[in-house]
Amino acid sequence: MTSQLLDPGYALTLRPMRYPAFYEMYRAAIRNTWTVDEVDFAPDLNDLNGKMNPAERHLIQRLVAFFATGDTIVSNNLVLNLYQHINAPEARMYLSRQLYEEALHVQFYLTLLDTYIPDPGERHKAFDAIETIPSIRAKGAFCFKWIDSVQHLRRVETREQRRQFLLNLICFAACIEGLFFYAAFAYVYYLRSRGLLHGLASGTNWVFRDESSHMAFAFEVARTVRAEEPELFDAELRAQVEQMLEEAIACETQFAQDVLSGGVDGLSVKDMRQYLEYCADQRLAQLGLPKKYGVANPFDFMDLQDVQEVTNFFERRVSAYQIGVQGEVAFDMAF
To answer: What is the C-alpha separation between 147 and 78, in angstroms, rounded?
Structure first.
């Protein structure tokens, strides 16, 4: 019997290559190399101190507090639960690269915190937010529940074990990277549409591209497993994924109620929930599952994520750096 992607073991040879799509994703990620030193946060301080009202500053404080630990949680799940069970060397090459990118995001947000919150005591509070701020604690609990759901698995052999693994993979791609992080991006790009915090937005462009690639990889793993073991993708799995997304939307809506509690002109909890439902439908479609919510994107400022500015950003990078971005810059990921 031909070995399948989730069969236990450690495949070692890249030839013959069974899953070239994963290798191409690895190569594309290498071409997307960037560093935190390229991001200039200095202009943002003028906005924080002179242009933003208390409600907008509260939004940023909560967002920064979530950023303080979000990517570290993703890194832990990648190392503890994903790498050991996706049994193809080309896929593990991509996961190694993803781990580097998650570390880069952690550095990016650490630099962000150090810049935006100069007081050491306030910075300490931001890092403690996952324990002390209920809306962030709820999101953390959701993440850790799914990390813990497969912590005991050393091999994924039975149908139930493989289903558990798939649900963890789908949770981190569709709910954490695909909902929690995308909601955070929406807040950043809303502020950019107001002419605020361009340093944060420019760095977020790179993080956005990374996270979109991470989701694409996870969904390709799910597509591959579905092709090899279609019996895993039954009505029960679909119902579990829909319930997982609903729980994630509830967590992120609670966070929106906190973030927007001061009243931010142009943003509402209702619109944020609709945006989350819109994103959830895109994630279901990427998994080959029927959409559930049938709503439109309520945020005009997210349409094509301001393609002209991002295109200029990439063109500037290509002209200034040897690595640069090669090939097409695609904006077909759902915002």
So the answer is: 9
